[in-house]
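Input (Trehalose 6-phosphate phosphatase):
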Amino acid sequence: MPYQDLPPPPAGLLDDAGLFLDFDGTLVDLADRPDGVVVGDSLHALLRRLPDRLGGRVAIVSGRSVEQIDGFLGDTIRDFAVVGSHGAEIRPAGGTTLLPDRPASLTAAERAFKDRFADDPRIVIEIKTLGVAIHYRGAPEVEQEAHALVDAFAQRDGLTAQAGKMMIELRMAGHDKGTAIATLCEDAPFAGHAPVFVGDDLTDEPGMVVAAHHGGAGILIGPMRDTAAAYRLDDVAAFLDWLEKNA
Ligand SMILES: O=P(O)(O)OC[C@H]1O[C@H](O[C@H]2O[C@H](CO)[C@@H](O)[C@H](O)[C@H]2O)[C@H](O)[C@@H](O)[C@@H]1O
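Output:
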């Protein structure tokens, strides 16, 4: 059944709000491989001006690790809060990253995933601070097998199977982007300001839910689907254009 479409976000949505931004598929277009995304000069320039415009109430909230996000955005996000690993890592602006220990069981999973797909260069096994992902964008026919493999390790080791765009990740349980946004909303500079969360992927849905519960809203980037977002824009370019005009 087709879902009823959502309107674009209104002008003024960011007035007095806290802004929480997903990375892949929201700030940068998806690429064939995880290390293939391109962060252009215009994105750096746009991000650099956000802390002043939003009273410091701006955060990146990614499924990637904080370390990976720093690798792409570097000094540009010096004054941002950064959430990584689907909510498991949190670094307040100017602070240090709070992150749990890496479960030892992830190392065994890493080995098993690499062994299974070692002879297929189309598959990328992404080793992350608190997870390990199988990317099958280059070989969509292995989707079911990759999901079954990750599901088996998740059940055996009490971890979570996190589905994403052409990938499945084994990650720590007990947190998500929503829990991280709720944590940031407890303290300055976000406390008392409605959160606006912008994302494109399934891992972003808990963030959309928490934004709405805190009196804010989610913005879905991409085609309409089942979502807790209140607004939608077609793609990364449309969102960056909206952000240029509204922040
Ligand atoms: O929460 P995000 O910041 O959106 O990160 C989600 C995942 O993004 C990356 O994978 C996705 O983007 C890749 C590069 O464009 C693409 O090749 C892949 O198919 C996508 O799933 C990243 O590699 C993952 O670790 C993130 O969890």
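The helical segments are 41-53, 66-73, 105-117, 143-157, 177-184, 205-213, 236-246.
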